[in-house]
Write a structure and sequence with these properties.
about 350 residues; alpha/beta; Quinone Oxidoreductase, Chain A, domain 1; Rossmann fold; 2 domains; 7-stranded mixed β-sheet; 6-stranded parallel β-sheet; 15 strands; about 20% helix; binds NADP nicotinamide-adenine-dinucleotide phosphate; 2-alkenal reductase [NAD(P)H] activity
Length: about 350
Amino acid sequence: MAVNVVESKEWYLAGYAADGVPTTDHLTLRSVPLSLSLDSIPDAHVAVQLLFISVDPYLRTRMSGQEDGLYFPQFSLNQVITAFGVGRVMRSKDEKYSEGDIVLNAFFPVAEYCVVPSSVLIRKIDPEAGIPLPEYLSCLGVPGFAAWVGIEVLGEAKPGSNAFISAAAGGVGMVAGQLAKLKGCRVIGSTGSDAKVRLIKEEFGYDDAFNYNKEVDFDATLSKYFPNGIDIYLENVGSKMLEAVLNHVNPHARIPVCGMISQYNQIWTEREGVRNLLNIVGKEVRMEGFLVGSYLDRFADFTVEMEGYLKQGKISSKIKIYEGIQSFAESLGSLFSSSNFGKVVIEVNKPR
Ligand code: NAP
């Protein structure tokens, strides 16, 4: 007999974290009954069982309680956190969706089950396409798309360009490095452990890489790895690394600014400044912040290209899977350490 009420665990924001890594002091898990009976689902809505949730650094920037220009607006207190996710339709009041459809949404509640308007669903996923579902949150999701916009669209990667990628073993970095290699660049990455340095060289094909935690003088490090200067820097971390890069950029270098994760846990007055921004004038550098949401008109081009690379084995990925919705706070905190390889995803319910 069909289940009509489920107990659904969900994470909500109990308090803002102005600085530091948000913990269970700020994020709280509660259990709520959710009716799945068709009578209780509004028209043009679907009931969804969450399968995978993407854990991304920008989520932290929505929990500071301060509107300081980063990504999306702040979550409200008591609001259920939302995140990119993959789910399975359980009940549908929209003829475009049927029970069993696998769907993608950029703003699913971080919960086990939900009822959402069908208009928020981005698309259906074909589970027979031969691509593992978490990959739709990784290479084929926000990190992969950010890497593509950064390297191909704004970075204008071409054969022979010298490309540098920070947070090179993360969700964005692992794809960015491989895309830049496919475009014929010489690619160097920075990351936070020796194991990750090995990973990005051996599995993601980086020409070379270094552990930034072991380097005392980034300027000297970049002199060693970039004797001919930097043409493209995909900026993921900010602060001292950006400052060092600006001393090594070639004329007309491109710096697509994807994020600055080293600064997300400080209030803005405590963040580190960059002293040599003037170099972008003399070197006529194009340094440009971007949000993937502004490039959705290119998402279809990206998807075709990336699906091709995945099927041909030209791009590989590593996904760190946390088990169960209860792992959300822990998995979010892990983004601010060097503990994980690749893209961080929560498996909420096992796909059938
Ligand atoms: P991710 O997979 O979660 O990787 C985060 C990694 O950042 C960590 O594993 C850690 O790796 C590194 N990190 C953490 N704290 C650091 C610090 N203080 N200094 C240097 N590195 C640090 O993240 P992601 O999804 O790849 O995101 C990378 C960047 O892209 C973030 O800044 C994110 O906000 C941004 N982003 C932007 C867009 C956009 O539309 N603009 C879209 C997606 C992501 P290490 O071991 O290397 O330290």
